[in-house]
Each structure stands twice: as structure tokens, then as C-alpha cells.
Amino acid sequence: MSDVQVYTPFRGGLPRLGPYARELWARRQFALELARTEIRTENTGTGLGQLWLVLNPLLLAFVYYVLTSILSGKPGGGARLAHIMAGLFVFYFFSSAVVGGAMSILSSSRLILNTAFPKMLLPISVVLVSFMRFLPSLGIYAVVHVVTGQPVRWQMLWGIVPLVLVLVFATGLAMLLATVNLYFRDTKSFLPYTMRVWLYLSPVLWLPEQVRGSLAFLRWANPLFPLLGSWSEAVVEGRAPQAWMLGAGAAWAVVALLVGAWALLSREREFAVRL
Question: Is the per-residue pLDDT at 14 higher than 90?
């Protein structure tokens, strides 16, 4: 008969990280089941649900492609369509993870008040849901990549690195905003507009090499610039990303994860009271 594990709240400050990490890992099935439940609730397990998850960003990609072609005054070509589509799929994964993660604590008030468990599992489960929704879009992009005549090389595997970094970055922001939203309830109202502006400031509708002059600050001020830029270089262009992009993206991802984890852990003891 296995030992019974009891999760006990801590009095203040940060919990003991070792036991907390072990408890978090022991409850990993709990996070997966939360994610599966959310998927089933939204009917994304059905054929039509999965189709809409892909059609929504796919149609937006075509709209943005037409608009950028009109504004530039010249046809964009297959490379531009592939770039927009690849970037938009990843950005929608990131956006849904962050916006959904910001609501993860508030929307789970009954679970928090009635069950003792590491609350970090809540934003993590939301990120998992967003990642599951993102996966079908990779198949659609693969078809578009081949149809538009983009190169198919082994260097495309480099895309795994920025994708993992986006996952880590989104997890950190989800934990941070889930905590902030508990104290400032209007945070969720500003997030959709923030994400829309963030999309326009990121290399999705334009290429990283187009940034020059007064806009050069975006290379360092926008965390998604190196992440989405390196993703496009690997997946769309079929070449190894620039080292500085991977380095900058990794730095942003690690900092976001540490800050988000610290914010959530340091305030976790107050969640039940704030709800």
C-alpha cells in the first residue's frame, strides 16, 4: 500500500521549493486531466471543433496576407504567406495561453477553496490546453509549406527550440498574470488589446530584417521578436536561426518563468482569501 501524500499550505513567503517541486511533479496527471477536461468541455475533441481551431487562424492568415500585399503594392508570394501563417499559428498559441492563464486562478475558485494542491498547476494546465489546440495547425502549415514551394531541409528541426522557448515564456507570463489578475481584476479586460498591439509589433506580418532605423529597438524591447524571428528562420526558410535570437529568446523565457513562478508562489497562501 503506497503512502498518502498530504499537501500542506505554507505560512508566508516562498514555500520550500524542493517539496513543492516534488508535489507539483506528483500531481502532473492532475494538470493533464484538467487540460483534457477543458478540451472536452469546449468540444475541441470533435471533428468540427478541431476544424475551427485551424480555420480561425488560417482564414486570418489569408486576410493578413492580402492586406500586406495591398499595402506593399506588390504580390507577397508563397514565402510571405508561409511566414505569416507560421508566425500567426504560434502567436495564437502564445496569446491563448497567456490570456487563458490570466483567468486560471479566478475561474477555479471552487476548486481552490475545496481542494489542497499546488496552485501552479492551474496556469500550467491552461498552457497545455493551448498547446494541444496548436498542434493540429502544424499539419496545415506543413501542407502550405510544400504547396508554396518552401525548402524542406533538416534545419527546420531547429524550430523545436524557439517553440519550446515560446512555451516557457507563455507559462511564465500565465503564472504572473494569473496572480496579478487576482489583485487587479481589470487586467483581463486589457489583455486582448495588448495582444493585438503585440501582434503588430512582432515579426508576423513583416520580416525581422525589415526592422531598421528608429524601429531597431524592437529587436531587444519585444520578447517575441527573437522568438518568432528564429521560428520563421527555421521553419519557413529552412536554416539555423541566428545565435543572438536564440540567446535573447532564451533569456526572455527564463526571466519570465522565474518572475512568474516567484509571483505565484509568494502569493499562493492568499489565493483563498482573495477569491
Answer: no
Please, is 75 exposed, middle or buried when counting C-beta atoms within 10 Å of its C-beta (0-12, 13-18, 19+)? Answer: exposed
- CA dist 174 and 103 (Å) reads 9
Using a cut of 0.90, tell me whether the model's pTM lies above it.
Answer: no
CB 163 within 8 A of CB 134: no
* Measured distance CA(35)–CA(24) in Å, rounded: 15
Residue 43's pLDDT band, with cuts at 50, 70 and 90, is low
Burial of 217: CB neighbours in 10 Å, binned 0-12, 13-18, 19+: exposed
H or E segment and range at residue 111:
helix 109-114
The 8-class DSSP code of residue 10 comes to: -
Query: What is residue 207's three-state secondary structure?
Result: coil
Q: How much is the pLDDT for 16?
A: 80
- Residues 124, 127, 132, CA angle at the centre, nearest 5°? 125
- Tracing cell 504560434 back to the chain, one arrives at 90
